[in-house]
Amino acid sequence: MNTTESTATMQPAIKVYDYYWERIIYASLIALISIVGTLGNCLVIIAVCLSRKLRTKTNVLVVNLSVADLISCINLPWMSIAVLSENGWPLPDWICSLEGAVMILSIGCSLYTLGGIAVSRCCLITLSRARYHELFTTFNMAAMITFFWVVPIAVIAIALSFGKGFLGYSERYSMCIWDTQHTYTKTFNVLLMVVFYPIPLGAISVSSYKIWHFVRSHTRRIATTMPSVSGGIGAGTTTTTKSQFSKRQMAVTKNLFLIIAMFLVLMSPYGVILVVPGGEKLVPGFGVILLLNSCTNPFIYGTRHPDFKIAFRHLLRCKTNFQIARESSFRPEG
């Protein structure tokens, strides 16, 4: 069993779970996220591996996101076991400690990759194709992805420096995260909030604004610079061009707002509760909401992409790589 009494601060006991059925609900939701997330992220990774048309620079980040989420989902069953155990962690301590480290690693990398995808799409839309490829070289992509993994690894290293047993079973929440009654718990919570939240959110917000501003300005330029030809082919061409760009504007705006909304809805509650005292009973629920990041990302970045839809359909029908590559009509974007 995990024992950290020597380094823990003396705090009044807080009963997070009033009834055992609460544990059952949380454990069941975590198990469901694990199953759905594992299947969804595997589909994304396999689709990119099998389809040549999906092997783009943008999708390198999508695959990195899926790998991070897949690692999280594969390890979630340990979390379900922890939540269901009323009398402490029933298995060897190192398993729970490893689960805590894996959660920090996968969630941190996932959040930073979300920001990277937003920046990549912003550059793809607002810059010329030549400039985009100049910025997103193989070396730069590798450096970016490495950075996304190094940041959470550094956070894990800091957690390990707090002493043996800091990462592992939380007696208060019955979860494999970290000792929430340790002397350095508040410091670590603030560290997580500062490192994992502002930078990805800033990248998503700034990229979304730049895309919105670019599309809006481009639409206005089309409206003012296109020659006004009354009747005939000219008028039809102008109307068609405006209509097509208007649809593109709406699609881009909706997708970006969806990304921001999902980020805020899933990440913000847990991020806030880390540094705001008095909300202990909300932590398990907000933790489950945070874990939904690993489950929903394949649907946001996969099912909304026309070529991923085709690839998913072929994979679910057990079709071959040749059929996926041949029947997909997606034009590579970079």
TrEMBL record:
The chain crosses the membrane at residues 24-49, 61-81, 101-127, 139-162, 190-212, 256-276, 282-301. Pfam families: 7tm_1 (PF00001). Residues 40-301 form the G-protein coupled receptors family 1 profile domain. It comes from the Eukaryota. PROSITE patterns: G_PROTEIN_RECEP_F1_2. One of its GO terms (cellular component) is plasma membrane. Gene3D superfamilies: Rhodopsin 7-helix transmembrane proteins. PANTHER family: B2 BRADYKININ RECEPTOR/ANGIOTENSIN II RECEPTOR, G-PROTEIN COUPLED RECEPTORS FAMILY 1 PROFILE DOMAIN-CONTAINING PROTEIN. This is Melatonin receptor type 1C. It comes from Holothuria leucospilota.
